[in-house]
Amino acid sequence: MTFLDMLRAAERANESMLCVGLDPEPARFPGALKGNATKIYEFCAAIVDATADLVIAFKPQIAYFAAHRAEDQLERLMEHIRRVAPQVPVILDAKRGDIGSTAQQYAKEAFERYGADAVTLSPFMGWDSVEPYLQYPTKGAFLLCRTSNPGGDDLQAQRLASVAGEPLLYEHVARLAQGPWNLNGQLGLVVGATYPAEIERVRAVAPTLPLLIPGVGAQGGDAVATVKAGWRGSAAGTTAPIIVNSSRAVLYASADADYAQAARRVAQQTRQQLHAARA
Known about the structure:
Layout: H1 3-14, E1 18-22, H2 40-51, E2 57-60, H3 62-66, H4 71-84, E3 91-96, H5 100-113, E4 118-121, E5 140-146, H6 153-156, H7 169-178, E6 187-191, H8 196-205, E7 211-213, H9 223-230, E8 242-246, H10 248-251, H11 259-277
Parallel strand pairs: 1-2, 1-8, 3-4, 4-5, 5-6, 6-7, 7-8
């Protein structure tokens, strides 16, 4: 199965648009786990077990593991997800963006070392920073397009006078991903939930690409507005899912020993909220 096949299958099987982001911060761990970086795998695996039937994808953020010298725990976690939830694709949130042989090594890290089904990339070094990842034909890559941070305006909202129609930079990225860069149908886009109007614009420019939408929950993105902006359904010519990510709101739903059960409750509520918004 390709990554897009996996996404569609998980969307149907779990009736979900929710992605749970795995951003482990030991200082926020509950109870006896608090402050213990050797328990990253244990904490994240419990979240995965509690939510695997509720999500369209999981999204581990590599920096939260690397900062604690916990790459080995990330490898174990990826193996755990493949074992207990083989139907759920895993997006490695790495935001890589380099060229040539370096990009090839980053692609090998994401897809061969960690076994990710997709990876997030920064496209601002151009096509040759993306192409090495597309050499893995069953894998996916999400290009940063319109991100949820305020500083995204510094570049993404600038108009390109040298391009026909003078699109904003994020619109140009969406056009490239929808068109000439998407050789094997492997690309998707990252668009932040804090900008529903921009999500709607990206969806209009790129109707066949999956959209990874962070920012719902602790970052303040509105789940209902996000779905209304990005989800169209196949009848409207939209052929790929939206993947609405929530990290901290799910991970840290409780500071006590019931953290996994609390995470499940929040994930259920968010999933239901997203599903209801499609109406």
